[in-house]
């Protein structure tokens, strides 16, 4: 079986977290006594992924203290994180990587089943149903070559495009080997237009020439954490739902 890598984008400054963001990267905020990125790494390992890369920036020493010495975790620093967007962090993490990859945001907490559709030979973006979490990113789809729903575009403006949106961006996307190379090319195009672009722009660019399967898990419990209000919601509302769901995870969730 082809081995898959994981890439976690964790360089952001977390300015909307206020004082908490100045003291700690968002990816190291704790939910249930466990930092967000630690939980993601654990779930990726359970999924059988043995090569995990974390792109650091803001307060990178805290990631080094936590993950230094772990053979399956590589920390890659983006030295210009303060003046660039997450797309440059993506390109930093993709250096010397030519195999399939699953891309994750660092500031999300989610049920383990969000990773179930991730596979080395498919390019897929994971969507949820309505969250009403604030700061949602809405996704619109089109019909792909096989008649399935594929990613078309996304926006934080729910009225940005005609027709109903299909779901909301979770922050988990997997790319087959060939599409990793196409993603790099798409990213170069976007960076030439705007060096401060975020990684989502490269997915929009890639979708102009590639079918990216849109996998909707309508009842997925998850949230992004951008500010203190979202953090409080994650702790009080979302984490209990995740715990309740994962008490009933079947042993063969990820297949055999």
Order of H and E elements: EHEEHEHEHEEEEEEHHEEH
Gross morphology is globular
Helix/strand-derived class? alpha/beta
Main beta sheet: strand number and arrangement? 9 strands, mixed
Share of β-strand residues = 25-35%
Residue share in helices?
25-40%
- Tell me the radius of gyration: 17 Å
User: In DSSP terms, counting alpha (H) and pi (I) runs of 4 or more, how many helices?
Assistant: 7
Q: What's the average pLDDT?
A: 93
Explain this structure:
- The chain has 256 residues and is of the alpha/beta class.
- The chain is 30% helix and 25% strand.
- The protein is built from seven helices and 13 strands.
- The protein has helices spanning 19-23, 36-46, 60-67, 86-94, 177-193, 200-206, 228-246, and strands at 5-10, 30-31, 34-35, 51-56, 73-77, 101-105, 108-110, 124-128, 138-143, 149-155, 167-175, 213-217, 222-224.
- The strands form three sheets. Strands 1, 4, 5, 6, 8, 9, 10, 11 and 12 form a nine-stranded mixed sheet that branches.
- β9 (138-143) and β10 form a beta hairpin.
- α4 (86-94) runs antiparallel to α5 and α5 crosses α6 (200-206).
- The longest helix has 19 residues, at 228-246.
- The radius of gyration is 17 Å and the shape is globular.
Q: How do you describe this structure in short?
A:
With 256 residues, the protein is of the alpha/beta class. It is built from seven helices and 13 strands. Helix 5 (177-193) crosses helix 6 (200-206).
């Amino acid at each position: 079986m082809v081995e898959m890598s994981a890439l976690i984008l964790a360089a952001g400054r977390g300015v909307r977290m206020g004082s908490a963001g100045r003291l700690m990267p968002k990816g190291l905020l704790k939910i249930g006594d466990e930092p967000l990125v630690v939980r993601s790494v654990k779930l990726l390992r359970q999924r059988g992924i043995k090569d995990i890369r974390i792109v650091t920036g803001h307060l990178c020493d805290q990631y080094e203290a936590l993950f230094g010495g772990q053979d399956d975790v590589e920390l890659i620093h983006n030295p210009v994180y303060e003046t660039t967007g997450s797309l440059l962090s993506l390109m930093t993490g993709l250096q010397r990587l030519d195999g399939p990859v699953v891309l994750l945001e660092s500031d999300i907490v989610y049920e383990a089943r969000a990773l179930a559709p991730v596979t080395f030979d498919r390019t897929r973006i994971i969507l949820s149903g309505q969250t009403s979490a604030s700061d949602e990113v809405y996704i619109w789809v089109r019909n792909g070559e096989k008649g399935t729903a594929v990613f078309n575009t996304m926006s934080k403006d729910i009225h940005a495009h005609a027709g109903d949106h299909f779901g909301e961006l979770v922050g988990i996307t997997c790319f087959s080997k060939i599409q990793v190379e196409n993603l790099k090319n798409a990213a170069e195009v976007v960076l030439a237009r705007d060096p401060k672009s975020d990684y989502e722009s490269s997915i929009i660019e890639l979708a102009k020439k590639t079918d990216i399967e849109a996998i909707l898990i309508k009842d997925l419990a998850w949230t992004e954490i951008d500010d203190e209000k979202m953090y409080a919601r994650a702790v009080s509302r979302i984490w209990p739902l995740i715990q309740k769901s994962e008490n009933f995870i079947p042993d063969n969730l990820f297949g055999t």
